[in-house]
Fold these 2 entries.
Entry 1:
Amino acid sequence: MIRYILKRLLIAIPVLLGITILDYFIMSLAGNPMEMMIGPRITQAAIEERAALLGLDKPILVQYWNWLKEAMQGNFGYSFKQNLAVTRLIGNNVAPTVLLMGLSLVLSMLIAIPAGIYSAVHQYSKTDYAIVTASFIGSSVPSFFLALTMVYFFNLRLGWLPSSGMTTLGTAWSLTDTLRHMVLPVGVMVFSVVGVNIRYIRASMLEIMEQDYLRTAKAKGIGRRRVINKHALRNALLPIITIFGMQIPMLFSGSVVIEQVFSWPGLGLLTMSSILNRDYPLIMGVSLLSAVVVLIANLVTDILYAIVDPTIQYT
Amino acid sequence: MAEERKVLLRVENLRKYYPAHSQGLWPVKEFVKAVDDVSFDIYEGETLGLVGESGSGKSTVGRQLVALEKPDGGSILYRGTDLVKMSDRAIREIRREIQMVFQDPNSSLNPRKHIREILAEPMLHHKLVDKAGLDKALQELLDLVSLPRNTLGRYPYEFSGGQRQRLGIAKALSLQPKLLVLDEPVSALDVSIQAQILNLLRDLQKELKLTYLFIAHGLGAVHYISDRIAVMYLGKIMEVATGTELFCEPRHPYTLALKSADPLPDPARRGGLDIVLEGEVPSAVNPPSGCRFHTRCPYAEASCRTDVPPLVAVSNGDIPHLAACPVWQRQREARQ
Amino acid sequence: MFERLGYVGPLLDVRNLRTTFSSDWGQKEALDGVSFTVSPREILCIVGESGSGKSVTALSLMGLLPRNGKVLNGEAFFEGRDLLKMKERELDEIRGGDMAMIFQDAISSLNPVFTIGNQLIEAVRAHSSVGRKEAREEALGILQRVGLSEPELVLERYPYALSGGMRQRVMIAMALAGKPKLLIADEPTTALDVTIQAQIMQLLRSLCEETDLSVILITHDIGLVAQMADRVIVMYAGQVVEQSDVQVLFNSPDHPYTQGLMQAVPSIYDDKARRLVAIPGTVPEHYQDIEGCRFASRCAYKVDECDLPQVLSYVASCESQMNFPHCVRCHRAARGELPPYGADERCTPVDVVAQISQAPAAGELKNETKGDTNGRRA
Amino acid sequence: MQQATTAPGLDRSLAERISHETYYQTVFRRFRRHRPGFISLIFLGLMLLLIAVTPLLSPYGPNQITSAFSAMPSAEHWLGTDQVGRDMLTRLMTGSGISLFVALLATVVSTLLGVLLGLAAGYFGGWIDIIIMRVTDIVMSFPYLLLVLVAAAIFGPGMWNIVLILGFVNWPGMARLVRSNVMSLRGVNYVQGSQVAGMPTIYILFKEILPNTIAPVLIYATSVMAQTMLDEAALSFLGMGVQAPTASLGNLLNVAQSYTILETKPWMWLPPGLMTILLVVAVNFIGDALRDAFDPRNLQ
């Protein structure tokens, strides 16, 4: 098992390197971030001085190498814009995003798993049709539009819920306040991913329901309930793990839009601003972090797979 | 055919080792020895049957002959030229003369093409016919395999399993081959259809002077169609003889075991005949040392574990009877 | 062989079973009025080609038809109770208990994510109220009975880690767990090698002889029928076309299809010069529309009368064997109009027994070998 | 022993017709039976028609500024006007057209890329496969929208860039799908038969293998298209997509970031939002219908 994990980690390294290379070189195509600083009060000389300080006058390969060397030591540079360490900026913004994503992930799975399984087990029933249709429509709604509609109803019309930030400005922190702030963003996030999940789980479950081993189980006379609850469900774990792994990058993407609409002070918001400002080190930091998260998610998925599926031999 | 038999294809010391783990960063130390040092001749115009259980490597041998697998060693001499050593380009024309019929007729025809396309495209590619002669050639092909001529515009799913196998045979024949590798051509068919196809194959051989390598696990079918039969077990040939000799007087315990496991279609003779082999075919990864069969052989002696028995002639008729078991031979002689 | 079959009334009595499958263009018939009985302690073989309805018969009886399949009518009395009228829950008491089934493809029929022990113990406990420990003990015993020499080890294994033959033995063990009176084996050895098939068949036969087990063996292999069956049902296009005692059937198959089937199979004891007699044509696709004999289009003896509906009727010459009447769905054969079968051109089988006796007996030598290696004489 | 009764209901003529129809006839017949899918197809067709005739029927150009600013829906402006006085209905229709066009084109780009790379990786294996698959991993390891945003920021927003960017991020899924299909088809008898017959690789790839991957590719492409429409909308909404004054469904919604518009002028944001949903639902249903229609278990 340990050897298997090591092997998976070894495979992840070139992927991670590839990501940094791709990132860095794409960004080098973007043009000089110094352009952003050009203004009436800044002389050409000052810009050049600053560029030299930031290492931007060197060839791109050298720049990348320098960045990589530093990154290996845990130094991801300083934000051009805010003059703060990238690690620190990210550190400040990570918690709200993790909170938002974590809760959304848990909730969406809590809805999708039973709904998908129920739908498959009762294929062609009215409930099945309802669930499938709802999931289709659900996955077709742009999340930002849903967010706007939610804000319109629950904030602007009804005034029930706050629509921006994590806390109400000017008040002391309280759990209920934060929870109230979370209702809308989490709700939108869950809604926008749950449809796809239901369909995936339903499809996998339908496939399982057709397997020969379910016929064998039925032939044992153990009863329909046990056939499904034991024999089918255990096999459904595999697709559930898969969807779990797929979810991480999806939620990461979703958080950019949702955080923007709800002014949620997380990584998504940071990402947007870094992109708008062409803040290279920050963009590198954020994309590297997200890539690492995705790779770890993949790794965890693989390991869980190996644990659940006895036919996978991890050697 | 006794005197002037010409060797069409000679296989010498053919080997195919697959790595036991397909993927991985570490170098592979274990190999599946699918085909290990196999040699045989196929004479012009004859049918050589190749029987064995799953994992015996019989299909791998066939696939190597048609270049679907690359041998890891040994040579395949077709009319004296070694196909293994030749470049792909040079080999193309010769390769055309060795064609294959597959086991599963359902998947041997592209479901997205109609019959005309399926049959015509290889012929046109090899310039065996020109556009003008195409229709006539196609009609002839259909006649050969006894299919109605009006089927050219149809798609494969409109045919029954037996008809599809006829089309599979027609497809192979369209390239005017000399040698056909028949890889379990009747195993997937219903009993009543099997006989049709077997008879068709026999007729075609006579008519077109074809040479067959007939690979199968059903002993009856192999016996029916083959002039000689080679028995394989775990990547090695155990015995080669004519069908009658092989089944009347097997010289290898494995052949005897195969024979007695073949259910006799006579309720009056039940049980008693069986020598039921114990256990199952061992893994081809690190197969047993010495004689590969010794782990299941009721007659095994100590020497069987260490010495690899050579395939030697045990009788000298017109067609030599070869067997790779000196031990059983000795035991039988001692008993008499 | 006959003696142990003292007739005591059928264990299973199937009458007029009709099963259909819904398809794109309506109901497609799979079984048309299938009737037969199974007596205690007998092996009944159902033989036929793919699509003849032999597997559908078994699945209909077990209530295991796929979603689009449906039993239209018919009765199936198992020890007097009609299986087809039972609710799922009632059926579950019999399924896996008095009546068990094994399938062709053991690897896909075993749940890949549970150990053999888990699945086998579940089967044991499904129909008896034993504790986990006792169930385990019982499972070990059953594994031994089906010839698995290291039952403890097998219990811990997952299906993928077993060989094909072992998996089918495990399937049989699971079927035996409910102490069945009837075992339906649907092509249990089709996916296996001949030497393994021989082992499995030997096991089935010994189970039958040692316990009060009846077996329905579904197969397409006429050789297996000859070796295993007490009685045989031949199916064609969803109908029973002939049924008989096995000896009678092989001596005088009456239905032209049965005759064709027997002649179409090449045997290693055949004279090579003999040409196989193939049945021409293929099974008609929409056979439910054929009012008359469904085999007529392929039959050498067809007359106009064959377009009329055919019934399964007694063969005139078989009145003496009323327990196992020889019936045939061919009016001409029933009246004895067809030329007698038996122009048997097979050469006499070379006796394997004789060959073996030439060599030292297997067991003897095995011991010798063992002595050899232990004593290091050589 | 028992009387044979008549066969149960089978529509003989239908059966006869079905057994002679071609593959695509079967697929279409099954597609039509999927009601939401079929309705969606008709709806999309009608929409395209409407979009096409909008320039002829509408009295306003999409970017034409009229005298009414932020006007409520009225007889002159059925869906009102925006803050600078452009007719919302005209903009909605042209915007839908642009969005569909971008999504379709991006889907074509990613499908072409994915199919070609997938074919190469699956058929040749070895190093080619390893390299392509690693690149696939890399692209897939990016949170997708982040990649798009970065790329949009770098290459500059704008319709054509968005097409290329969205096209480029979506190919890995397609490549994996095609690759796994090709790998299984490579072992299928008719492909091997063509190899034995000495047919050239190009022939095997494009005439034996490709036609048999069309079903999964089409199905996947519809889901890519639906996703692309959502992504284009999100990008344009964030200001990184199609740029004003060109209308697209996403940038029409851009104005709703202001709470005053959101609260008081629903005609500016509600119609484009609903239109997006309708179009994406339609594409998704078509995909589902295709999945049913192509399902090999349903096909004879």
Note: Chain D has one domain: 21-65+79-294.
Entry 2:
Amino acid sequence: MSLLKIVRLHKDFGGVIAINALDFHVDEGEIVSVIGPNGAGKTTVFNLITGMQAPDSGEILFEGETIIGLTPDVLTGRGIARTFQNVRVFANMTVLENVMVAQHCRTSKGAVSAIFRTAGFRREEEEIRERAAEVLSFFGTRLVGYRFDQPAFMLSYANRRRLEVARAIATQPKVVLLDEPTAGMNPSETREMTELIGRLRDDRGITVVVIEHEMKVVRDVSDRVVVLDHGEQIAEGSYEEVTSDENVIEAYLGRPARAH
Amino acid sequence: MADREPVLEFRGVNTHYGPVHILKDVDLKVFDGEIVCLLGGNASGKTTTLKAVLGMVIPTTGDVLLNGEVCSDKSTSYRVERGVTMVPENRRLFKRMTVKENLEMGTYLRTDKENLADDLERIFELFPLVKERLGQKAGTLSGGEQQMVAVGRALMARPKVLLMDEPSMGLAPVLVAQNFEIIEQINEAGTTVFVVEQNASMALSIADRGYVLQTGQIVLSGTAEDLLSNPQMRQAYLGEVD
Amino acid sequence: MSKKMKFRHLGVLVLVFALIAAACGDDDTADTTTAATTADTTADTTADTTADTTADTTMAPMAFPPEAGAWGGVLIAAGAPVEIRTLQAISESVAFLGVDQNRGTELALEDFGDVLGHPVNLGTAEDDLCLGEGGASGATAIAAQEGVLGVIGTTCSGAAFPAIPIFHAAGIVLISGSNTNATLTSDFQGNAGENWMNNYLRTAHNDLIQGAAAAIFAYDNLGLRKMGTIHDGDPYTSGLAGSFGLTFTELGGEIVVATSVAKEDTNMVPVLTEIAAGEPDGIYFPIFQPAGDFIVQQVGGISGLEDVQMYGADGLITPDHFSLPETEGVYYSGPDLGFDANAGFTGETYTNLVARYEAAYGELPTAAFHAHTYDATMMLLFAIESVAVEGPDGELWVDRLALRDFLYNISDFAGVTGTLTCDEFGDCGGNVVSVILNLDSDDPQAGIGNVVFRAGKGAGGEVVILPLG
Amino acid sequence: MKLLKLPQQRKRRFGFVDSFLWAVRIGALVFVVVGIFGIPGVAGGPEGSLFKTLSGEGVSGEAWRDLFISGLAQGSMYGMIALGYSLVYGVLGFINFAHGEVFMSGALVSFFAADAFATAGIWESQPVLALGFTILVAMATSTIVAVLTERIAYRRLRGSPRLIPLITSIGMSFFIRYTFRGLFGDSFKTYPAAPGVLEGRATIFGVEILKTQLTVIVVTAVSMVVLYQFVARTRMGRAMRAIAEDREIAALMGVNVDRVISLTFAVGGAMAGIAGVLWALLFRQVHFLTGFLPGIKGFTAAVVGGIGNMAGAYVGGLAIGLVESVGPLLVLDGWGIPAVSQLKDVVAFSALVLVLIYRPTGLLGERLSVEERG
Amino acid sequence: MNPLAATSQDSVRSAVKVGLLGGLGYIFVSAVGMVEGLGEKNVIDPILSLGYLMLIWVGLWAGHRAGAGALPGDGVSVVGRVWLGIVAGVTGGLLASAFLIWINTFVVREVFTNISPALIELLNLRQGLGTGVAVAIGGGALLGGAGAAIGTLTPLMRRALTGSFLWVLIVGFLEVILSQIFREIDLGVFLAFLIVGVTSWILLRNFGDSQRVLLGGLLAAFVVGVLVSQALSEVNLGLRFIPDFAYINRVGGRALTLSAAAIVFLVAFAATVLFDGRRRAMRARLAALEPAERQKWAFGLVGVFVGLGVFLPMILGSVVNELLSTTGLFLLMGLGLNIVIGYAGLLDLGYVAFFAVGAYTMAILTSTSTARNWAPELSFWEALPFVVLAAVVAGILVGTPVIRMRGDYLAIVTLGFGEIARILFLSEWFSGVTGGALGVTKIPPIELGFYTVKGTDTQAVLYLVLAFVALAAFVSYRLQDSRIGRSWMAMREDEEVAETMGVNIVKAKLLAFVMGAILAGVGGALFAVKFGTIFPASFSIIVSITVLVLIIVGGMGNIPGVAVGALVMIGILGGSNSSGLLREFAEFKLLIYGALMLYMMLNRPEGLLPSKRLARELHQEEAVQDAWLQGEIEQGEED
């Protein structure tokens, strides 16, 4: 059964069609790349899946149930997490706090227990802290130690991207949607991130959907590639299949020589 | 080449951001008719260099020269008037204005209103699609179209030097390719282009010469061919593992 | 004593230092300031004497000072001033009321002169802000100062509520020239008001009188049968409009619309239209400036209200308002101001007082209550003088309870506002209300003096109509 | 169908907030409709203001007309003030709370000009000249105050978190207000009555209108059209819009950002200055607190119309003016609520809340600056 | 030799500029009426009135700025700097003279009401225009020079000099309060203070490591202190000779005598010079401690301060107590608004509505006035749960419609709600319940069982208010550092992202509104009891703004910051509806308010006592620079 299934999804913005009769699915344990020209509706698909926008018609099924109309926080609770194209970490919160917040829907203690600092509350705080530290250690030494208490705005660009991924993982998702995780990274950082995406699935069993422009990354991580153009799916298949598809070359890749 | 006057020149430019020394003794020259690229990773000082060209950052020491004139502490508009303009990263059109108004914004400082129609024609020649979209709000255009308008807007200023900030950043391969084609076209039409880019292989494929910036210093420079074959370059910036 | 001597020596030493400091400043500054005020001489003497006499009191062996009453007493050293204070609304939009009253107090001080050879000190004027908060904090600040015998204030009844108990706890009497809220004293039927305390008195009238008298005039004299009323959300205007309505209805009239504006309102068309819908014969609007100005200015433009009789109240009895052409033909109820010929305690006539007011402050009185406050101050000073016991060395002893009792028993006290007699709940004012008619906006003073109706309090608390003049 | 769709509103499962908002929407609608028409046939229930008018006991037809027109006049001035908020918000992305004081400054200072004209008799003999000059004085004062405000306080705060300029503008508002109080005193300045030519009523399309109100409506409408043309057509106007969208890129086009932002404040100030004189013409009393409430209403109007949107400011101003003039009698009176005029601000602010619940970006939609888009 | 020769033209030019500004300052304080308005209040008798002080201040400031404005490269000497100060002073004096000549020649009072004959007299020193001009220029030069000279002193001397001068002013200014304190202080409190102070000093020195001993000892000392203070509360300490000596009583107000002023100055000066080194050493030693060690010390010190603080209201006298309890009420609101804005980032400008709801609920349920016989006459404690309930309902009613509104929309809508609430409380419509314009009177005092807290009993009210403030601060602290606090913070940073991280925005926002409403509501309830009467006028929009201002001036997001803000803006300056310590400035309060807000926002936007987070946020650039310098950012550029 598909973990995530999108059926005839449609969305327009004031007459401009963003997503048109889109069908695609993601199976459990897959890494799926979504590629397509700018403005093809890739990020919109993410927004629709995470409940940040509502589709005009169509259906999104997660673990076989419709999730249309659910709010993002509920969906996070169900196990969908994401990162953002333009890095949206909580800049004025510390690295650790960023990741601690992400466990909000996995924890439950309310105002009263917080005020009285009940035993349950203290235990839960301890757990949150430990889990946050654990998730951050996923990136080796890059985000640990003294960085825990550093505000996120002091991180370098690449580290902010990493923190965003860590934050997504900390929600304990079943599927994580990564929006251009390597944008703006240099070749070595890109390599590192590529490897990490693989480990997300292999070590943690998280299904991954990734939007990417860097074809090298797409090649290295994807089990399957979905190509969108003008809100429609124009091709789907393995990297090789897709990159040799005429439509894809026409709409996205351009002259083959350009795509490494 | 030495006898030619550079249209854009940095002479020992140092910039500081508070106590932080960003650009360190940067020297570079861009001659008329060239495509020159400035390569560097994140936070290498590329953006600061651009800001220094445009007068958004004033060098603490050293000079920025435009057409041989020292412009180090001149305002942005002064420099724009003297023929520098930029196509910003991510296009950044005025989305609520029409395409036409966007193009007109490019002529903000020009006084030779009589030539505007010709210039507009020139843009249409370059990008026939733009003509069709003239009355449309810029925000409604597709990514590729927006890129054309952004370049068109810059060209309307009749720049001597066109600065391109990260023309490949976050773009689909086909758009990246289109972008670099446009750059070549513009250059062929006589405009000097200064490309600031992280994607070294792409940039060097069209450039005449290149500089490599690393933590505020020029560490390599030379013709595109030289740079492409430089082993250090290949490893650090072209992403080749071996 | 030796300790004090030590201080003296030190004092001399540092005086040298201070003089050098002063010399560094401008010589002129120092000279002129001292020369211009007579304070320096008093200051010097008090500096020498205060410490001594205080020391004396603690060891005083015999009859002077006498034993203090339940509220304690105040010993005033020879030459030291008698301390009284003011607590009025002197900032923001109601400043014109409070400042006017403070001027009344200052003029009274001038007229009364020294109390048994002691000057009278007003200290820092406190601000009641026309709010409970201001009343409380001002009262606290005053009560904290030593030897304050009485306070003139407050401007607003709202400020008086929390202030009265504070003064009560300190044994200080509070006399207001402009509080009119009925619950502060009594209902005239022998029942104490809810907020009455026995340290409170006033020379202003009681709302019950004005509202009732104004209604009687409207019904009987003007022959109005259907009235609209407007207040502005202020407790004073709201209470007045309310008591007007009550009497007017009792008389057989009808309040067709009882409505209100906000103090900041400028566009009065909606409120006037609302009233016009009730087709009234007249509109009673006992509010303040500028809202009152806007109402008279805009009423002419409202269809249905062309012939309506406008009728304001004391908040608008100002030269400013009366100089608006639109106020011609408008009636105003208010405390009786027909006291031009009245002579106060010191024989000063009101006419003369106004002239001095204008000379001193560069403008005509900005409100009506300076006269009441003048009388209130006079009453207080007279009472202090009457109950004070003089000591052997020029000291004064004032028993607070005696002072209170004296004030509560004042009768037939000649004031510029008329003859004052305090009742058992502290209402001292003549409680004479008049209605005036403005006829000529070019001569606002004449308008203010044009009394067409007078009424006062009868023996049983009822309203009795008084002869004009 | 399309119209019913709420822009940018996410379609969600019907949660607490949705039920609440729908309850408010429906409740408000019922309240308004019943207030206007009453419940026919139900004796003792709300009568309905319209029904009352028809049965001859409520507000007369003429009175409705007067209310409507005075609301329009009041609203025109709100619109003029709203414009200053909207322009600044569009360009700098913060609420300039001191704008109410800019309005006040013009009204207050121009009093001295008007007073001088009145004393010299020019006010009556040359009303157009005198009025024109008075307006010029007001415009100049307000413009100077607005530009100085920007120069002294706001310029240094560009790019700081939004709360900072907001608080600064509140501080500025206090400072200007009490400086003016200190300089010119706290008495009410009574403007000379409108010159003879503006007395009484004129008839336009068969409707009688007080000439002063007509003047206000016409002058504001003309000013708005002129300003709109300026912003839409001229190079400077384009620069203003460009800065509103993306300050950095505008600078890149050679726009002198500082100068254009000053110009924006100047334009907003000038409009407020005109509004100040018109205000004085209608109400004739100005003092240092005059700016406070109109300032808040102006801002409300800007939001109701769609902040950052020039036409929206004007429309919002008219809407707020009308609602607070007509609303209390039209809706509340029908319910038999006493002293409805007292509640006109309640009606105005409730209208604001309702507009934002129905249309979260205001009547004509917002136009936000680059910071907003985040 | 021309001492200016060594200075560059730029320095001179900037000195002239500063001088002109100073001149404008002279004109400003004169024309807005400060000089005359404050002219009567003497601080030091007879040489210094507040009015002149304003002018002196302007001159010193200009000189100081001009001196400090000398370019570092100039190598300007002391003499050079003083000369620059004099240049500025003379320039300012010339401008001031022009003003003087103008107002002496023309009668401008018709327009500028505060340029009265009395002011002209004051400025001319009652000697005619010539003297006025001479003094303006001469005094300008003198003050300018002095101001610049102060700038050339060593920091210690400068601090000592200005500090001592400030002390003289403070002592002169606080005549009423200080007199009352000295007059009324009783032996019991004095001893209690002594006992707690000395005991805690000994404890901290010797048993700093053992929290248990420390706590036990402090508690014991505290209990003994309370017993002693109660036992000896009737015995006056007999310090009244101090105010009798220090102040001179003259018609127009009491002022500091010259000799007392000199003593205060000398003592303060000596104290600064003598103890400055020690204080610094202490601070350095504290800073050098291990974090755990420092925490212990901090713990101990907090204990001491609390212990001493408990006795403070017994000493401070009614005026300060009254001010502090008003401050406390605003602080309660501030803490609530701090949750709403500081933590959750919801810009609420109608916050006073909740305060009003609390006050009215308490008033209506408890009032014994006959005007409302229909209402129950509950006690404070019985009514308090209803106050909380009403606040919760109000929080939800206001919170829900605005859940989906962004920053400034939220601001105007909440502002609207605030006005709606006030007008409804005022309206005829609801006057049956709320009393309309006539308010609610006769709200009874609070029965504690063993004591009745009357509104007039400032000391008891203060204790009560402080207890509630402590509770509110405690709740705030606990919430801030919890899952909920973090979710608020995340929401403040980026609402959308917070939602995708699993934060339920609706719940989080409503909770913030409700918590804020409860704190304000309880504040309102105390307000009602304290004054015994309430009127709608107390709940105007300006209160909302005052609270907003105090948390921002104090330091948003930081509880001690909010407290400092409340102290400065309410306690010292006085709020919109209350007078502060500086009562003499009442007329210019809001002008000063405005100026202070401008100054703060332009120069110290993070507030007086900022939270680390906010300070970081506002000084991000500097933080990033530091990070770069420390190699924290790998390749480190700001882009």
Note: Chain B touches chain E through 14 residues (CB under 8 Å).
